[in-house]
Here is the input.
Amino acid sequence: MNTTPPPQVWPTLRARDARALIRFLVDAFGFIETAVHGEGDRVDHAELAWPPGGGIMLGSHRDDPDDIWALPPGTFGAYVVTDDPDGLHDRASKCGATIVRAPADTDYGSRDFAARDPEGNLWSFGTYRGEPRTP
Here is the structure.
């Protein structure tokens, strides 16, 4: 039985080569491709799930001045919770991620590393799960 609630917040990004970025995010970081819509090289809508919960949406950058979702490729940043930052760092490194900060312990009790994907987006992965919620 799956008890992980479905994501209610979806960070989004655009990519110059969305299909290549999807492949990279799956291979290097471990996202799961759940939906990709589009023709040829163009991706109109894609969803990638993060195995412990949550996910991202992305699509191809469009050179259209009327595009209401004109996010510049390579400007996205996200923090992603993982139980194994060292193992993920090794996987990402082997897949060609640009490591911008090696795994290290933080003063707030997390173990984190940071990397850029081929589009230049910044990803931080760590064990910090955020502050507990109050009812």
Summary: Residues 18-29 form the longest helix (12 residues). The chain has one domain: 12-61+73-126. The radius of gyration is 15 Å. The domain at 12-61+73-126 is CATH 3.10.180.10 (2,3-Dihydroxybiphenyl 1,2-Dioxygenase; domain 1).
